[in-house]
Amino acid sequence: xxxxxxxxxxxxxxxxxxxxxxxxxxxxxxxxxxxxxxxxxxxxxxxxxxxxxxxxxxxxxxxxxxxxxxxxxxxxxxxxxxxxxxxxxxxxxxxxxxxxxxxxxxxxxxxxxxxxxxxxxxxxxxxxxxxxxxxxxxxxxxxxxxxxxxxxxxxxxxxxxxxxxxxxxxxxxxxxxxxxxxxxxxxxxxxxxxxxxxxxxxxxxxxxxxxxxxxxxxxxxxxxxxxxxxxxxxxxxxxxxxxxxxxxxxxxxxxxxxxxxxxxxxxxxxxxxxxxxxxxxxxxxxxxxxxxxxxxxxxxxxxxxxxxxxxxxxxxxxxxxxxxxxxxxxxxxxxxxxxxxxxxxxxxxxxxxxxxxxxxxxxxxxxxxxxxxxxxxxxxxxxxxxxxxxxxxxxxxxx
Length: 399
What we know:
The chain is of the alpha/beta class. Helix content is 41%, strand content 15%.
């Protein structure tokens, strides 16, 4: 199926949208709850999950009066603070409990804000259960797009990434065959303009100082290596039925143009707004309606000039590696993503250098024989095998 659809008829929702927020304590999760808080007449939070942030889970469950919660970390699930959950709230433990939240009959929309490959099972379950999926877990589409996209029905998969939300808004009512090129914008991260010699000595603290966005640590490091943009290229390839090489990365330091779509007649549509994730989150929840703004509005008369530049794939090799994985397809993006998750975490812990992230990913890709994607179990095996290989390579490069 396709994410494209005819221009939707805007009909009023019968009662509040019932939402499950998976990963409610992270950056996207907390901003999702803020959108819900601002629109209590339109949204009802019914289910929440966390990895191990039990205090935040209890506070949110009590505030919103949720009926279902899940804690992935079994050790955290023993925290006495969970006794403060509402009396009628059902507690599940483990990864499977999170997936069950995505299948609940009293859930209309699943916000998948889980981090990394771990989010693929919940996303697959939500689409299989015919839920509307508002997803920030780009890795699930990067790794499992061949499995997930056939489950998509028009208007039922809404990207939360600011760039892909922008592209989606630009193609509503358009035909896929009329799209000529996608301009995927990129802030350039904290190291834009530096050379590889300069990158060799940067620290995790340097990399976490993103110039325009406030995000979780994993994605912020991915932004600094441009791996995040590489993942987004593959994501856009699956979502919008475009070849990898028809998706052009455009450095736009101000992060006000969130992406653009160019059509066969040369016309370009762009979606602009503030650098605030609450805007794409709200659009994913409200679609096909638009609600009053939760994000700060932009005074365009007061804005500095908007600038554009080329992404340097030689200096930031992770972007080039992701493009290669996207062109080959199959299980290679899964192997690439697994290696990146291992290397990204190692860099944050001081176990390897910044450029070692690229080296580890490249060596795992070189040792991977891509296969056609056929099942979640196959992807689980590929992910585990690639993580183990990345761990071995990490021990070699860090000596």
